[in-house]
Design goal:
Blueprint lengths: L9 H11 L4 E8 L3 E6 L2 E7 L1 H6 L12 E7 L4 E7 L5 E5 L16 E6 L3 E7 L6 H14 L2 E7 L7 H11 L5 E3 L20 E5 L6 H9 L3 H5 E5 L5 E5 L2 E3 L5 E3 L16 H4 L1 H7 L16 H7 L5 H43 L7 H4 L2
Parallel strand pairs: 3-5, 8-9, 8-11, 9-10, 11-15
Antiparallel strand pairs: 1-2, 1-4, 2-3, 4-5, 6-7, 12-13, 14-15
The structure holds guanosine-5'-diphosphate, magnesium ion and zinc ion (ZN).
């Protein structure tokens, strides 16, 4: 397998240079299970684990490998396995708030912890279903995420076969997605899927984002032209003779191009910088700048350009609501992020103190010994 076909380029090459001499090789993460991953490298597909040192030195979940990451690895030739020693810098990434981040710090949660969903993405397909689950506000959320990741978004409206008014929907989506390409498709009927291949040139990585059930896997099957089950569900015998199923998330398409499925995505917890709202809600921000008062809450203030625009039908009240909601959400996240940072500093300091303490020789009845 050629590294360029896997998405390798001068950006990664530059960062890999310092490791080249020492017998390290670059590898790309294609799937992650609990403690092992599958990687692609010049030797093909291998299972890999993160080295103890790497894990120990990493305080943040987001600094560990995610699907799509390029890593610095060594090969254990006899075992046909790889060890991951480092993460190469990411060109782009999608993140959300990790499950751990939902609990407040004083209840043992991690404040707002970042969980990287996928890394080194060139283009993202924001997939929605045109069935009863269709929701313009959700597309807005995914767009905010795409803008904050600096990845080129493409809106894919799947299940066109069950939609009565595709043109109407497209008009509506166009209004919230300035200049973003929109493709209505039907994955089950294999209609419109060929329009998507233009984004999938060799070495280009496309990630699919969308709630579960919108048809991401079906789209991938359709692009592959074969049932993915046959291609990707690899049964591995573990030592105990138990069969586990490894789910490959980064897939190489026959025509070149790499695609990342994101299975198990439930509702989207935004992870973005607060100021991305200016890009995602350019239209609302432009109106807000015309309000009489700079700190207008767009509530009851006189001379509010936003309320005026809503009254005369220029601004969809639903979009305004989304704007206020996302703004509030990201402001809140910003506060939680700071707490998280504080905790990390504490943790690092704690580690240092522990290390120093362990260097002091133990004495009789030393509480450090007793604790064990
Ligand atoms: N009507 C219709 N159903 C679809 C289409 N694409 C997928 N589905 C159905 O939607 C359900 C969820 O599809 P799946 O690919 O598993 O969604 P995922 O969770 O996003 O991967 C399945 O029952 C599919 O058969 C489509 O184009 N039209
Ligand atoms: Mg799926
Ligand atoms: Zn206002």
């Amino acid at each position: 397998m050629n590294l360029t076909e896997l998405g390798w380029n001068s950006f990664f090459q530059k960062h890999f240079e310092e490791f080249k001499e020492e017998g390290f090789i670059p590898a790309r993460i294609i799937t992650i299970q609990k403690t092992t991953c599958q990687v692609y490298c010049e030797y093909g597909e291998l299972s890999a684990t993160v080295s103890g040192k790497f894990r120990y030195e990493t305080n943040l979940e987001s600094d560990l490998p995610a699907v799509g990451d390029w890593v610095v690895a060594t090969i254990l030739k006899d075992e046909g396995k790889a060890i991951i020693h480092r993460l190469l810098p990411r060109k782009s990434k999608f993140s959300r708030i990790s499950a751990d981040g939902k609990k407040p710090i004083d209840e043992g949660g991690g404040g707002a912890a970042e969980q990287v969903i996928s890394a080194n993405i060139d283009t993202v397909f924001l997939v929605s279903g045109l069935d009863q689950e269709y929701n313009l506000r959700r597309i807005e959320r995914y767009l905010t995420l795409a803008y904050s990741s600096e990845v080129k978004p493409v809106i894919v409206l799947n299940k066109a076969d069950v939609c009565q008014d595709i043109d109407g929907v497209i008009l509506e989506v166009e209004k919230i997605a300035f200049g973003v390409p929109i493709h209505p498709v039907s994955a089950v009927k294999n209609e419109g899927i060929d329009q998507l291949t233009q984004y999938l040139q060799s070495g280009v990585t496309v990630s699919l984002l969308g709630s579960s059930g919108v048809g991401k896997s079906t789209i991938i099957n359709s692009l592959l032209g074969i049932d993915r089950q046959e291609v990707n569900v690899v049964s591995e015998s573990t030592g105990k003779g138990k069969h586990t199923t490894s789910y490959r998330e980064l897939i190489i398409l026959p025509g070149g191009g790499l695609i990342i499925d994101n299975p198990g995505m439930r509702e989207l917890q935004l992870w973005a910088d607060e100021d991305i709202i200016e890009t995602a809600f350019e239209d609302v921000e432009a109106l807000a700048s015309q309000c009489r008062f700079r700190d207008c809450k767009h509530d009851t203030e006189p001379g509010c350009a936003i309320r005026e625009a809503i009254e005369n039908g220029e601004l969809d009240p639903g979009r305004f609501e989304s704007y206020m909601k996302q703004k509030k959400e990201l402001r809140y996240l910003e506060l939680k992020k700071d707490k998280k940072k504080a905790r990390e500093v504490q943790k690092k300091f704690g580690k240092m103190v522990k290390q120093k303490l362990s260097q002091i020789p133990r004495y009789k009845n030393d509480p450090r010994t007793k604790k064990r």
